[in-house]
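Our platform keeps sequence and structure together, in a single record for each protein. Such a record has a labelled line for the sequence and another for the backbone structure tokens. This encoding replaces a full spatial description with a residue-level series of whole-number codes. Below, we set out a record of this kind in full and without editing:
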Amino acid sequence: MKVCIIHFILLALFSSQTKAQDSLYLVGTITGESTEKQITDISGVGDVNGDGYDDFMVSSRTGLIRKDQGIVKLYLGAADGNLIPDVIFHYPGTDSLNDFGRGSGIGDVNGDDYNDFLITGSFGDWGFPKGKAFLYLGGASIDTLPVKEFYEPWIQDNFGYPAEAVGDINKDGYDDFIISSPYNWTDGKGYVYLFWGGDTISFIRCDTLKGYESGDQFGLSAANIGDINNDGFDDIAVGALYSSIPDSPLVRIYFGGNRIDTIPKYFLSGGDIYNAGDINGDKNLDFIVFNGMINLYLSLDSNITFKGSYYVGTNGDINNDSYDDFILGEPNYTDSSGTMIGCILGFYGDALFDTLFDFKMTGENKWDEYGKYVSIIGDINGDGYTEVAVGALNYPDYQYPLGKVYVYSYKKLTNVKDGIKNTPNNFQLYQNYPNPFNPRTSITYNLPRASAVTITIFDILGNKIRSISNSSQSAGIQSIVWNGTNNNNSQVASGLYLYHFKAVSLEGKNEIFESTGKLLLLK
């Protein structure tokens, strides 16, 4: 999903549509809690808990300054398609300055039949930050702590943007993934690291693709584009944004194999590359290259070109017709009254694909930037139809944005629990983060309605250490910090502690909820 600046001028796209259904049904919405906690990103991650439903992530700010600035919420798919977050991730380290960013599904990298995922972030001085990528393994239950973290020694490297799935490139039964570093301090060239899946995943076992010149932003996009040379191994395309040589092709194609061939074999004009799935049903992967135009490649020798100004969401069958589809977002779209409300255009795959869009949907408010993030997030309710998520980052007011995610489906759903206020439907206590911790940790919990909340810390023998909350709180996802001190504000010793959570509803339902978790202080 990249910014691509050129106005949409192909008038044929505004002619009557040929498909039976010219819009999608709104499943529900997710709205940021406050301007300080604005939604910033959305991404599908596949089925990470193995229950047969695809899952997705929504990233947002936390309202904190200089530390733990980002939060990522995992929404597990379910038959009712509810939009209530199930797992919450914070920056999983003790770096003094940090931020947390975007989730990326990367397939099953360790061969346990659960999809895995990365969450990227950064740390260090704001003027010279370093990127980080954290690897999380899927499972029947999801651990909020990563099994691995990756980062480079260079500053200002943008390491982790992007991080993408590329499938099983070497055919060893493990999915592989790439982490890009579009700039490094040593020579300014972009680097792309191909990590091979397996029992051990590390920099030692990865192959490196390198850019050609300083500042080229090589690796700002990358994708599996299928088996271009028919050798039985899928191939990878990597895009760059800049070359000092005018009209240079900026997309380079590398052949897969037992190891990746680090010398590119094909070059294409353009900078952004996207895996588009199988658009025309020929059993081969197709891909999109943006070079000021949308270029849909059905093969290296067959591409369809049309104009647009888009973010791109690909690789899913929205209307369940066995052809993959794609979405183009236009956050700068202006309606007939001259109001910039943004829109998305949907294109259904077909054996005879054409450039007429099949549905168009518009945003709610002026300057919402509706369509700035578009993602085909998978089948989150198991009905055979792939859902679409669209972000409006500036909703409802660009001066005081909350951010909003719209989830759509080709099929009308009923009785969906809406996450518009991120308010859960039941009480829930989450695992503290980080855990182990030093010197402080956050305890997060869900309140379905306004409640009186008490949170008390005990040692393992049951002795009361500190009361850290005793107040009335509004419905929603709440969080409180314990700094490892007792009621006398003295630091406690390293060891295992218990946190007891009690909530009493204030809305006349006579509900009392209690739960206890374990936390570990290590000094």
In short: The chain has two domains: 11-409, 428-521. The chain has a mean pLDDT of 86. Residues 428-521 form a domain with the Immunoglobulin-like fold (CATH 2.60.40.4070). DSSP finds no helices and 35 strands in the chain.
